[in-house]
Design a protein that fits this description.
Shape: globular
Number of domains: 2
Number of strands: 8
Number of helices: 2
Structural class: alpha/beta
CATH architecture of the largest domain: Roll
Largest sheet: 4 strands, mixed
Distance between the termini: 17 Å
Helix content: 10-25%
Strand order of the largest sheet: 1-4-3-2
Strand content: 25-35%
CATH class of the largest domain: Alpha Beta
Radius of gyration: 16 Å
Length: about 140
């Protein structure tokens, strides 16, 4: 039976050279080891890629196709990623990751706090990368997974 486990995530960024140093720092904070980082080009699909390997998830950033180079990123456009949330193991871990993520140059949207509109014990941090892609670190006590 198939389980709803994500194998890999690929995010298109406007400028790979600008985004790469940010993702090096950000993904290191999440436990990715840069010795498992690989770069390449996929000519058939017209993109360059930087892949970050982890035993639980492959995360990649790719360059846009040339026809989309001037497009702006907006999470509310059809077909766009609204935001991506990473699970923490405790509120303390959310708080510690907040301090580390601040050091990456991320734009902090909302500091760690409770969000009762999402659940009684929903504790999260929201931030954006250098290009405006929104991420979340969340802990929810008692959540069945």
């Amino acid at each position: 039976m198939v389980e709803p486990i994500i194998d890999h995530i690929t995010v298109t960024v406007k400028d790979l050279k600008v985004a790469e140093p940010f993702y090096d720092k950000f993904l290191s904070v999440l436990g990715f080891n840069l010795k498992h980082k690989h770069k390449g080009t996929v000519a058939a699909h017209e993109f360059d890629v930087v892949e970050y390997g982890h035993s639980r998830l492959l995360f990649a950033i790719v360059s846009p196709r040339s026809v989309f180079k001037e497009e702006t990123i907006h999470r509310r456009k059809p077909g766009s990623l609204h935001h991506l949330a990473f699970k923490a193991n405790s509120r303390e871990e959310v708080d510690n990751l907040y301090l580390k993520i601040k050091e990456t140059g991320a734009n902090i949207v909302d500091e760690p706090k409770f969000y009762p509109q999402h659940g009684e014990s929903y504790y999260a941090l929201f931030f954006k990368d250098l290009e405006g892609i929104k991420y979340e670190i969340v802990y929810e006590e008692g959540r069945v997974i």
